[in-house]
Amino acid sequence: MAQETAFTPDIKFIRELKAAGADTMKKCYQCATCSVVCPLSPDDRPFPRKEMVMAQWGLKDELLKSADIWLCHNCNDCSKYCPRGARPGDVLAILRKSVIQENAFPRIMGKIVGDPKNIWQAMAIPVLFFLVILGITGHLNFPEGEIVFSKFFPVHYIDMIFVPLSALAVLMFAVSMSRFWKNISAESGNKLPKGDFLPSFMETLKEIMLHSKFRKCDENKDRGIAHVLVFYGFIGLAITTAWAVFYLYGLKWESPYPLDDPDILALLGGSTTMVWIARTIFKLVANISAISLLAGGVLIIKNRLKERGFETSTSSFDWIFVGIVLLVGLSGFLAQVMRMMNFPPVIAYSTYFIHLVLVFYIIIYMPYSKLAHFVYRTVAITYTKMMKRDVEM
Ligand code: SF4
Ligand code: SF4
């Protein structure tokens, strides 16, 4: 006898999806063209057609447990071929944003960072926090004379803010990830072969580093290039940040590493050439990474404008993130130029302050922003590989 399955649509969830820009989902009439054209859809339980039905029916719990929405790399090949203009690629992007918000810990941060309407609140937190720190420590002014950023905002204060808050963000992210893992692995009764985790994870990392899935896209190949630029820009900047921390605490070198610093000279055998090389390599990696980030951000904007016009609410979450990526690269670059050209203190230090606020947004809000995709996607792909479901076409 056929078994009956009862679904309870979550009307509130449907309204939330529509408000976030997924209104096009109502046009879907289940032709499955999207699943056929998707270059990443596995043979076993293909997507995104089934996710479109789930979204139309408001099956929130089922969507929260879906690993498949994370296998999509948002190339929008499916949206291009959808005969109804239902834009399944964009709907999946909104579903992923909802999953990040639902798994966020604490939930309020998911709401603040995940909802584009709250961008000013999200920015006000670091602004007020920094102003209070500067006020308490007597640094609420723009020092005259040569531009040295640590005179305005001492590096030790920056570390005292960022190190514990980054650790807290990692902890919060770990809680979100454990919720997510529990949800997606519910279909296997949370009984996955433990020995399969490491090989599946390594295979996933290799795929991500090489961006091999992006190369399968037909309609929007430029998206892969933009993603590579942003991805490696971030990695380069993370490396240079760790590098700067090592210079500061390991070698006691204070930025901007002058050629005649006696400590640096002593460590490098008294050779100014060696100091110059150490300083130049550091700057080169930092600048190339910033340029990569900027170029990737510009390319993403160009692609999105080409794809569907500027005034869309569908991707406002993405727009904000792209804007912040661009601004963080630009403000860092400008702050450096202003320091070298000895700009008026009010302009140079204000630019540096803005840069720090944006860096705070990128690092501390990572568990709730678009950047969280990187971790969610890595976990979901690893899971599907463990389930032997990530079939290559
Ligand atoms: S989203 Fe478009 S292509 Fe996919 S099933 Fe619906 S109507 Fe067909
Ligand atoms: S956006 Fe691309 S990867 Fe995602 S479902 Fe559509 S075709 Fe597949």
From TrEMBL:
The keyword Transmembrane helix applies. The chain crosses the membrane at residues 119-140, 160-181, 225-249, 284-305, 317-335, 347-368. GO terms for molecular function: 4 iron, 4 sulfur cluster binding; metal ion binding; oxidoreductase activity. Gene3D superfamilies: Alpha-helical ferredoxin, Transmembrane di-heme cytochromes, Chain C. The keyword Iron-sulfur applies. One of its GO terms (cellular component) is plasma membrane. InterPro entries: 4Fe4S_Fe-S-bd, 4Fe4S_Fe_S_CS, HdrC_iron-sulfur_subunit, Helical_ferredxn, NarG-like_sf. Keywords: 4Fe-4S, Iron, Iron-sulfur, Membrane, Metal-binding, Oxidoreductase, Transmembrane, Transmembrane helix. Residues 25-85 form the 4Fe-4S ferredoxin-type domain. This is Heterodisulfide reductase, putative. It comes from Pelodictyon phaeoclathratiforme (strain DSM 5477 / BU-1). The lineage of its organism: Bacteria, Pseudomonadati, Chlorobiota, Chlorobiia, Chlorobiales.
